[in-house]
Amino acid sequence: MKYMSEYRDPELAKKYLEEIKRTVSRPWSIMEVCGGQTHSLVKNGIIDMLPDKVTMIHGPGCPVCVTPLNLIDKAIYLASEKGVILCSFGDMLRVPGSEKSLLEAKAEGADVRVLYSPLEAVKIAEDNPDKEVVFFAVGFETTAPANALSVVHAHRRGVKNYSILASHVLVPPAIKAVIDDAESKIDGFLAAGHVCTIMGNSEYHPLSAKYKVPIVVTGFEPLDVLQGILMVVRQLEQSQSEVENQYARIVREEGNPEAQKIINEVFEVHNQTWRGIGEIPDSGYAIRDKYAEFDATKKYNVNIAEAPENPLCISGQIMKGIKKPFECSQFGKTCKPTNPLGAPMVSSEGACAAYYHFSGMVEA
Known about the structure:
Mean pLDDT: 92
Shape: globular
Radius of gyration: 21 Å
Number of domains: 2
CATH superfamily of the largest domain: HypD, alpha/beta domain 2
């Protein structure tokens, strides 16, 4: 693919691997925060080519995976019981709620639509003034600008039958929570390049300084990930702990100020529950009172209690990097993409899905 092949060069990948092997002298554990990086590691076989002294720990970096169970139940309730047109990105549809998924609700007759942009949902609301339209706004800081823009757009156009069910999670507080976890043994991090494209790198400097860990902002192609690992290993071997930017072709230190402006116009930071992990302080976005009429949580006042997770699912331990997917007794057995017990098996960025599809550990 044009503009991609240069980041998938096998000869250059081999050189990076050789340099990592020459550089590393003692065991190090490195967490890649984003599920897109996990998929790159597993799909391209990098996880098996790294020297034994480098252990990659898969982080919580999948916003679909950490969307609270009761929020999925709320989306299903709105679509099934309130008769709204429920719009969503496609990767949310098969994530299991406490009883069913949005895809199952759709099969039962709910009006659930897959879109590529929340602005499409605003247009649907304009075209259907007699129906309520809710966009399931899930994501990292990466998708927050578009979701915020849809609210501003609806406000300016006087679209009263549009709202969003927001479940945005923020990466730096999650990194802090992982480091603070008593079971965590992480020496360095690969930060999510797409998040930093929006937010910049400034939030990572205090974390790196406080916890004495190197944090390298990294892309998602094989050479990105390998170079990011090498940069972390070099810092660890030299007892350094700084923020570096491997993804400099995209990420700037200040990020995207215009995108940040629209985020701050619509959202404010609040505590957020991460599915399988629990509440992390200041790790999510809530809609400001100024735009309360576009907040589906307030608009419909639906109170759905948090249901317990499937007791057989260890997704919380997987997303905190404590366990690997293949260490789950249900992996590839009762838990498969067609019948997931937890979100990491169904999401396009979930660690369990990556191992299921690409590790060779599951018989076809």
